[in-house]
Amino acid sequence: MQVVAIAIPAIYRSTVGKKAVMAVTGGILVLYLVAHMIGNLKIFLGAEDFNHYAHWLRTMGEPAVPRRTVLTIIELVLGASIVLHMWSAVSLARRASAARPVKYQSKKKSHAQGYATRTMRYGGVIIAVYVIWHLLDLTFFVVNPKGADATPYQRVVADFDPSRWYITVWYVVAVLLVGLHLNHGIWSAFQTLGMRSPRSHNALRGLAATTAALVTLGFVAVPVSITFGWVS
């Protein structure tokens, strides 16, 4: 057991270990986003179905376990995945920077990598701010117009009321950045896990882009539909 306890931190300190952690935690986050998106789309089925879904999230496992136990476990796993994912990304970026003190001679390559780096870095900050706002809004009800006394359906509709169009814009921008992260992250995970080859390159690229696009559209559909009055 002691050998295992020593080996795990040693593995994580390696570049391969950090990339593996990023791939695994990224996979957990992708699965969560897909499940969350599907749940959000239930709003198109009406208030009753959406409220029932929100209630089910908090009562999963009852009566075997107390209310909200399963949801809390999921949240803890997600929280740990986010921290490990971000920490691994920062560590890898610093390690790459330290190992490459001389800039690339190819302008095309450096411009492309610089764009990707800036997008992931600043996009990550915006996404982090959005996640905090989202928790304050629909988990703790601090910034939601309807507050804790309203139903889940009423809170979501109030959030994206046409008079609050700026919230919809903010949400859409954050989701678009999530889509960019997904596209880049899924493709990177394929590379890290050794799935990329000349033969599978285009298929995996397409899978990453398609998954990112579907998740983005699924999340954007709800606020846009409410703001334009298609859901009320």
* CATH class descriptor name: Mainly Alpha
Uncertain regions spanning at least 5 consecutive residues: 1-6, 106-116
The total of beta strands comes to 0
CATH topological fold name = 3 helical TM bundles of succinate and fumarate reductases
In terms of DSSP E residues, the strand content is: under 5%
Averaged pLDDT: 84
Write up this protein.
- The chain is an all-alpha fold.
- The protein has one domain (about 15-100, about 115-230): Fumarate reductase/succinate dehydrogenase, transmembrane subunit (3 helical TM bundles of succinate and fumarate reductases), CATH 1.20.1300.10.
- About 75% of the residues lie in helices and about 0% in strands.
- It contains 8 helices and no strands.
- The longest helix has about 30 residues, at about 105-140.
- It is globular.
- The termini are far apart.
